[in-house]
User: Fold this.
Amino acid sequence: MNEAVDFKIVEAPAKPISMNPKKFGMWLFIASVMMLFMSLTSAYIVRQAEGNWLYFELPTLFLISCGVIIASSVSMQLGFWAAKKDQFSKIKTYVAITTVLGFTFLVLQYLGWKDMVSNSVYLVGNPSGSFIYILTGLHGLHIVSAIVYLLIVLNSASKLKISSSNMTQMEMCTTYWHFLGLLWLYLFVFLTLLR
Amino acid sequence: MATIDVHHHIETHEHDDHGHEHHHGNFWTNYIFSEDHKVIAKQFLLTGMAWALIGGVLSVLFRLQLGFPEANLSWLKPILGGWLTADGKIDPDFYLALVTMHGTIMVFFVLTAGLSGTFSNFLIPLQIGARDMASGFMNMLSYWFFFLSSVIMFVSLFLSTGPAAGGWVIYPPLSALPQAIPGSGLGMTLWLVSMALFIVSSLLGSINYITTVINLRTVGMSFTKLPLTIWAFFLTAVIGILSFPVLFAAALLLIFDRSFGTSFYLSDIYINGVALPNQGGSPILFQHLFWFLGHPEVYIVLLPALGITSEIIATNSRKPIFGYKAMVGSMLGIAILSFVVWAHHMFVTGMNPFLGSVFTLLTLIIAVPSAVKIFNYVTTLWKGNIRFTPAMLFSIGLVSFFLTGGITGLFLGNSAVDIQLHDTYFVVAHFHLVMGSASFFGMMAGVYHWFPKMFGRMMDEKLGYLHFWLTFIGVYLVFFPMHYIGIAGFPRRYYSWTAFETFSGFADLNMLVSIAAILTLAAQFVFLFNFIYHIFRGKPAPANPWNATTLEWTTPRLPGHGNWPGEIPTVYRWPYDYSKPGSKEDFIPQHIPFSETPESNLPHENDQIKLDLGGAGVGGDKH
Ligand code: HEM
Ligand SMILES: [Cu+2]
Assistant:
């Protein structure tokens, strides 16, 4: 019975489809950050529905920071495409621009807080104000973490460690940055609509 | 194709020469800051066992107060010191702290970290055929965050104001105001810090488990060939990723209320006649956030135990698990539904009765997948060649507790009935059976079953039986009477009922419960001895002591770093080929190809070989 040999050869189980574990882990991390903000915004809705809610205008600076964060996402994406095309100096430029825009965003948020304070809306007081400090503060902390990440990427880029054949780090950083940008847009729209 | 040469597949396993490179680190990198999933699993197990012991002792302390309210406990002075009053009673504030810490420790440190941490880490790579977790470093970090969190929680036990005392659910305003009870001072702060670290640890772990299960499976290990243990660990991790951030949010707002003066949960509060400045907060908001984690959390605790049980019951009934797809489906159902029933913990918070009936409906629906699982366990046992190993006994014990405890869930799930039962001992009985005891039994079953793989030695069966029967009977003696006490209206978390004439009729029942609790705790020392002694002195385990089908039993007796010295085995079949008709042995491991088992192949399995033959275009006489 020689066919046995043939059977053995052809009974080839499939290799499970898989993706880069690091990138996958990044998506899971993003999912958990999203749950954190979803729960806080749900808490906002629940709390608002109970009444005794202070109404005030969102600082206009927050609108400007939306523009800045969109611009930073654009430059990040340009950096990503540059990396795919192995344009090494462009990678550095774009990631550096993104980093600067990230800092600008943080400064704008801080000025937004100052606006709120001069408007007599404090962290301590009616929850409608406290929520905004918590939401923006927590988002800002994530931006800080992403800026640290950008600096790491910048460092790899200047050592020419990022190229079309070595995209993992660049890709993860881009994903994270876009996510935080979207998150801010979500928070802004949410806070604007649910005043 | 009547006969087929069995020897061919062996060559696929014999490529030892280019095996995995071996790690020879020092003591620190091998045992302390190890990145090997098996070592990390053992670290979780040992830490979890230490916590279980502490949690158990705390419960016996408060049971002494409940069972023997008049007793003089001054002989405990050396341990409790200032926590005893002048006449030898437990201080009422400390009683609350005991209950709180018992709950926190058991739910989070033992049954979440101890259970998932141990078995997800140990079994995921071994059963899916991976060298290690996706990120060994993150895995190590996960343990050390847990360790740090443990240290902080442990330290809080020794504060002069005592540890947190607002119940494991830490409802504000009680937990938010240090003036309220001593335990809401520094003890509560440490509780929050510790839990924040715990959440980080849990998220790191979960991200790793999911990533590993999805991306690192060996060739042939499709999702339909995954052992149910892996399905359970996988879904548990998914629930964890989605729900722990919510607890983090709840805790974050509480931290701001406590330390920075915000009013998320606080409003209109007077303490000793003085009004607090906080306005506009809502304590109910905290309950929503907490239970949005809290209910999924109970399944985080239970699902791994159910997965372990599926594996052990099938192996020791020598039968395929009944309804594999139904098992996966019901776990999926439980995972999804667990996110939409949280408000059944809040029926008496003044919620809209219509909303209450919506949550009643959703809650009762979750009983359906739970019942499916019980049915499938029983039908797997039905007419099996049952081997009553200690692991098997503990698994059957789990099924029993899951059933008795689940039935009382149906009562509690009715918003109207719950008005009478809420916050009584009926609830305590419910969740200790369905969650506490069931998961604990799952964990014990897992330890007995995988001890040979963890330590390369066998535990003693006789001691295992003794441990099982003492614990099984003990658990029922402790928790069954609580149903009656609860229906009679005893509230939970009360220091003493001796002031109420109505309740004096239950004094002896309470005494019985306390005695049973002490004996049950004592029985755990049988296990501890069995466990520790046989790590060193047990007789060496054979490679596959239970004749099981899953991949971990194809590793050497003590798998090294990388798990398989040679190539990772390929998977050809599902993990439940037990007592397959026609087969010589009563089990066929997952890595045996169908071409080697023509005598037991089902028609569609034979077709698969034939089809492949045609598809691959290999010539040869096909009859
Ligand atoms: C058959 C399905 C189940 C139903 C219908 C159900 C229903 C309920 C309800 C309505 C409550 C709230 C009672 C009250 O506080 O007045 C409750 C409490 C609880 N249940 Fe279940 N349950 C079920 C299964 C489970 C399972 C499988 C677990 C754990 C694995 C569990 C763990 C708990 C815990 C821990 C509590 C109490 C939490 C506390 O207040 O400290 N339940 N259950
Ligand atoms: Cu629940």
Chain B touches chain A through 69 residues (CB under 8 Å).
